[in-house]
Design goal:
It is an enzyme of class 3 (hydrolase). The chain crosses the membrane at residues 6-24, 73-97, 123-143, 150-167, 187-206. It is a multi-pass membrane protein. Keywords: Membrane, Transmembrane, Transmembrane helix. This protein is an alpha+beta fold. Helices cover 58% and strands 12% of the residues. The strands form two sheets. Strands 1-2-3-4 form a four-stranded antiparallel beta sheet. The protein has a two-stranded antiparallel sheet with strand order 5-6. A hairpin with a 2-residue loop joins strand 3 (154-160) and strand 4. Helix 3 packs across helix 5, helix 4 packs across helix 7 and helix 5 packs across helix 7 (180-211). The longest helix has 35 residues, at 67-101.
Length: 248
Amino acid sequence: MGELVFIVSSAVVLGTIYFFDLIFRTCMFFPYIKFLHDTGISIRPLTISWESTHFNRQILTLGRFKPILLRRWFQTGAIIVSIFMIPVLILLLVPIYQYLYVDNSNPVLVPIIPGLNLPYSQLFYYGISIFICVTVHEFGHALAASREKVTIEGFGFALFAFLPMAYVRLPSEQLKQLSLPQQLRIYSAGVWHNVVLACFALLLMYSNPILLKPFYQQGNGVTVVNVKEGTGPAQKGGLMLGDKYFHK
């Protein structure tokens, strides 16, 4: 029931926004059209996007910085991504095989559905994570394209059914004129940057106990982190969230 409410609510909100957008553009409401043009906002069914060229100069500068080092960086990424294509393809095909031919099997990949297997309380953190991932992904494409002297037409963000997205617009004609190794470096740059981001996140997760150690005490007491309602002894004894008990 919860996931149905979320889906219906999302569709109603985005549908209402698109409805008024369609009316204002049909009636040629000039202030609204000028606002969309000046801000780079566009509205389509279930999608709100924003595109800008303000980042082009910065990306161009980064793409011209240490070109030999950047070439080696993206060449390494192209090799690693190419090696992992086969395992990833197998990982994607296994659930299909299990669904078609194996009964009562535990799926390798499970779609995340808000309210079903993703608590609503975690939706904000999940959205932030996706936003960071897609931004790093598209930045990789843009940086690699700038390194190969491809014009960047725009960099933008979008919200599709409340899922954050990012994209970079590149001229297809210029991409076709590049050699195959150059194209591979550009196309694999997004996944390569996500691999590096995942490794950094993994390193940060395992180093948290060391990084956060100065802010916590360990081995000299306990802290009450949760008091379940209806537990008589705990409540009658006066246990409260955040209470600290130390050894004497």
